[in-house]
Amino acid sequence: MIMPLIKGLQITLSHLFKKPVTLQYPDERPQIAPGFRGLHALKVSHENAKCVACYLCPTVCPAKCITVEAGEDANHNKFAAKYEIDMLRCIFCGYCVEACPVDALKMTEEFELANYKRADFTFTKDRLLEKK
Amino acid sequence: MVNLTIDNTQVTVAKDATIFDAAKSVGIKIPILCHDKKLHPFGGCRMCLVEVEQMKGRLIPACTTPVTEGMIVRTTTDEIVKARKLVLELLLLKHPLDCPVCDAAGDCDLQNLTYEYKVNCNQFSDEKFNHAIDYENPLIERDMNRCIHCGKCARICDEIVSYGAYTFINRGIEAKMGTPFDGPLSCEFCGSCISVCPVGALISRPFKFKARWWALNKVKSVCSYCGTGCQLTLGVKDNKVLTTVYDENQGFHNGQLCTRGRFAYQFVNSDNRLTTPLIKKNGKFVEAGWDEALKLVSEKLGAAKGSVGALTTAHLTNEELFLFEKLFRGTLGSDNIDHSAGYAHAALTEGAQKAFGTVTSPSEIADIQKTNLLLVIKTDAYETHPVLGFEINLGVKRQGVSLRIVSDKKGKISRLPGAKTSVHKPGTEIAFVNALANVIIAENLAVAGVAGLDQLKAALADYTPEKVAAVTGVAAEEIVALAKEYAAAEKALIMLPIGLGYPGHDAALAQAVANLAILTGRIGKEGSGLLIMGEKNNSQGAADLGIYPKNGGLKGAAIIDGAANGQVKALFIAGENPVVSYPNRKKVEAALEKAEFVVVSDLFLTETAQFADVVLPAVSFAEKNGTFTSVGRRVQQINKAVKPAGLAKSDFEILNDLNAALSGKRYGNVAEVFGEIAATVPAYQGLTLSGLGDEGAVLPVAPAAKLNAVAAPAVPAAAGKLALVTGSALYHSGTLSRFGEGPMYVCGDAYAELSEADAKALKIEEGDAITVKSDVGSVSLKAKVGKRLPAGVVFAPYHFADASINTVTDGAAVTLVTVGK
Ligand code: SF4
Ligand code: SF4
Ligand code: SF4
Ligand code: SF4
Ligand code: SF4
């Protein structure tokens, strides 16, 4: 009867002398594990987004939160005239990154996505472009 | 029949089948890149290799090898798979891997086979092609770097379209699918080549980058332009019709379309669509609500009652036309209802009515390929109904049909193998046809015992070949020869296109040609008879449903006159654009200006709608359900693909609301009205909307043939004047295709076509601005110079709003004009 109680208190006591696992966020920052799936970024190459508007990511996205609209540039090439992700619906599965045939999309370590207005969760192409 | 075994399955097929056909008939899929069911076997891609027990030692192409009795075929063995993989590797050696930006992805045979055969590496390596890509063409983008040399585009353009825009140029590794002298593509723009291209080498430019194939919602419908009644599949996304999708199993035409059906769908999504009712207040249109607009309209119509005039277009569905008739003839009690200017349907509603006792012609589209001799009245049959033109091409080239044309000009079909065109003076077709009948009777080629033969003989006594030769300008021997050929053919079919551009193709001409068919006993026989080709998608339906004055009411043009002189107190115009398409534009405009009250329901603020007091926004074929009845009496369903633009309502809703407001019956839905049609229109008896299915139903016909002698009208002539004939341009249909974008890229301006001789005499060159002047008015057009016209004849299409040809015409078959720079 008394033994389990003692065992429990032992565990509690031992923790008093261990380093705490909680972080004093935001003063302390977490170490982000490799492969973490945070906010998306559209990769840039030669000053332009690499995305060729193939529509594979909106096709594969299980949350149906990506909107792409293709355009034709001056050289008749395809580019994403519109690229938007609705972060409120995104489930951060990373399928979009996996589907991209031209490696134009990645997921960053950015996880602080809180905001005040619904509209602010719609990440347009400008906001998604990779920051160097 | 031949029996063989394919993959252990017993197959029995006709003896002219190939192994590929035989496999397909039992659902065994053999991969292939260079074959389309409409084309002759080619054997170019080597994907369809199979193993035949009796021909061991090598692999056999299934698409070109005919079946033989007892053949044992295997379609997938390790060796075959290896060979197919090799074919794909070799194709991918040159084919760029740009699927992410290629519009064909998802619908690409090469992509699908590469995936199916798991070709994920290549044992060979080479440079890719570096051909220049044709970005200039407004409708067809050609990227020959993606071409896999299947030759389908060249074959469909040659075998079916009979245009021949492509051929392979150069040899070996340099070979490329090219145009004449590798120049820009300038053709009929039917888009057939795009539809069969297995890869993305040919793509539709208006659809370029608009959506991926798999994201499109595919909705089956029927083309809303001409009377051919081609079935279409609309590619829809986000409430927009983005393209037409090819389906080789659709319709009698196996998915084949003309430029209008393929590229002229953009009017559905146009930004210029009317989205709200408009009421004219102090000379200006003001947006209004439906309640206000309909209240005003029903008050005015109710007040005018029997003196209402109502015009409609034959683009409306059968159900809408039914309500149109119920509202105006029934509820309001006016017989002043008509469509197509009153003359463009007369061949059916008066001609066929007198000749056969029904408002329809006795033959079907299928008869075109079953006949032995085709007699086409006017080469324009190709321009008015291009896909029926393809049927003519196929009949002549594949079935050995003899083609005879009676026309005032040559045309594309005149160049078909063995075709003979008798080019007569404009406006003399009835005299010509009467002469044919005269010869048939005189030479005792008429079937014995035809009722009324003697009267006809007497009435046509004056139309001897010699006399008619003087009138028509066709040699008497030619007339006699044609009459004999026609009479001698085992099966013979006459094709008569009608429409707003052809005032001469009236009731009399219909009876004259019907006489030929009746005299030679061609009515009610397969592959024989007469096919009257209604201009619009539902011209036949409008005739069936009685959209024409029946009890002495005013006819199309007279309704317009009535609006001017006060006889018509309120004028309702549904979708028709008389300002552009009816004779004498100035007169129509003046009449509409003077009219007491005009209501127009249309998709756009057309030239006619500008004159209206109330404009009601209507919807296109893609935004409603219903049925159309095509040439050859096939009733087919259209399906709603997108939501109506803005507040627009279908004519069904508009007419139903008005009918109810004027204390007529309110009908439930389209199916209910179709049920009413089936119950009240004899030909539609027993049909149900759901029973129509994808194929539709061909209405039965029981012609009671009767000979009617008709007199040829006098043809005006004056020295120094040219004879203007109007008609349809290949890229357009009616006045709606102008809003379809596609046609406007390739044929955007009104033009007049002159013969080389006249052009030379008048010092006019292609592209010059010319003035065409008649007693009625004058108009400035772009000149086109063509070999096909005889001297003294000018041709002008009627579709264009700016510089419309009805500025100079007044409803006569031939208008005398002077042409100058
Ligand atoms: S992470 Fe998943 S849910 Fe989020 S956008 Fe990508 S595919 Fe869609
Ligand atoms: S999958 Fe890649 S290239 Fe395609 S649309 Fe998405 S980000 Fe762009
Ligand atoms: S669009 Fe039609 S006419 Fe033009 S090349 Fe293609 S198949 Fe031939
Ligand atoms: S363009 Fe297309 S249809 Fe024509 S040969 Fe090349 S792959 Fe075949
Ligand atoms: S316009 Fe006529 S021929 Fe062309 S696709 Fe439409 S129905 Fe067929």
Number of helical segments of chain B? 26
Number of helices of chain A: 4
Strand order across the largest sheet of chain B: 14-13-24-23-22-15-16
- Which architecture of the largest domain in chain B per CATH? 3-Layer(aba) Sandwich
CATH topology of the largest domain in chain B: Dimethylsulfoxide Reductase, domain 2
Estimated radius of gyration of chain B: 28 Å
Strand content of chain A: 15-25%
Give the fraction of residues assigned to helices of chain B.
Answer: 25-40%
What class, by secondary structure content of chain B?
Answer: alpha/beta
> What is the average of the pLDDT values of chain A?
94
Shape of chain B: globular
The CATH first-level class of the domain at 44-127 in chain A comes to Alpha Beta
Estimated radius of gyration of chain A = 22 Å
Protein name (chain B): Molybdopterin-dependent oxidoreductase
Domain 4Fe-4S Mo/W bis-MGD-type (chain B): 216-272
InterPro entries (chain B): 2Fe-2S_ferredoxin-like_sf, 2Fe-2S_ferredoxin-type, 4Fe4S_Fe-S-bd, 4Fe4S_Fe_S_CS, Asp_de-COase-like_dom_sf, MoPterin_dinucl-bd_dom, Mopterin_OxRdtase, Mopterin_OxRdtase_4Fe-4S_dom
GO molecular function, one term (chain B): molybdopterin cofactor binding
Distinctive features:
heterodimer, A: Alpha-Beta Plaits, three-stranded antiparallel β-sheet, two-stranded antiparallel sheet, 7 strands, 22% helix, elongated, B: 821 residues, alpha/beta, Ubiquitin-like (UB roll), Rossmann fold, 5 domains, seven-stranded mixed β-sheet, six-stranded mixed beta barrel, 26 helices, binds iron/sulfur cluster, iron ion binding (chain A)
Describe the fold and architecture.
Chain A: Belongs to the complex I 23 kDa subunit family. Chain A: [4Fe-4S] cluster 1 binds at residues 51, 54, 57, 100. Chain A: It is found in: Cell membrane. Chain A: Pfam families: Fer4. The complex is a heterodimer of chains A (132) and B (821). With 132 residues, chain A is α+β, with helices and mostly antiparallel strands. Chain A has a domain at 44-127: Alpha-Beta Plaits. Chain A is 22% helix and 21% strand. In chain A, the strands form three sheets. In chain A, strands 4-5-7 form a three-stranded antiparallel β-sheet. A two-stranded antiparallel ribbon of chain A has the order 1-6. The termini of chain A are far apart. Chain B has five domains: 2-76, Ubiquitin-like (UB roll) (Roll); 130-269, Alpha-Beta Plaits (2-Layer Sandwich); 278-342 and 541-661, Rossmann fold (3-Layer(aba) Sandwich), CATH 3.40.50.740; 346-533, 3-Layer(aba) Sandwich (Dimethylsulfoxide Reductase, domain 2), CATH 3.40.228.10; 722-820, Barwin-like endoglucanases, CATH 2.40.40.20. In chain B, helix 8 runs parallel beside helix 22, helix 8 (318-331) crosses helix 23 and helix 19 (556-565) crosses helix 21. By secondary structure, chain B is an alpha/beta fold. In chain B, the strands form eight sheets. Chain B has a seven-stranded mixed β-sheet with strand order 14-13-24-23-22-15-16, sandwiched between helices. A six-stranded mixed beta barrel of chain B has the order 28-32-29-31-30-33. Classes of the chains: A alpha+beta (132), B alpha/beta (821). The interface between A and B is medium-sized, with 14 and 13 residues. The site of one iron/sulfur cluster has 14 residues of chain B, from helix 6 and helix 12.
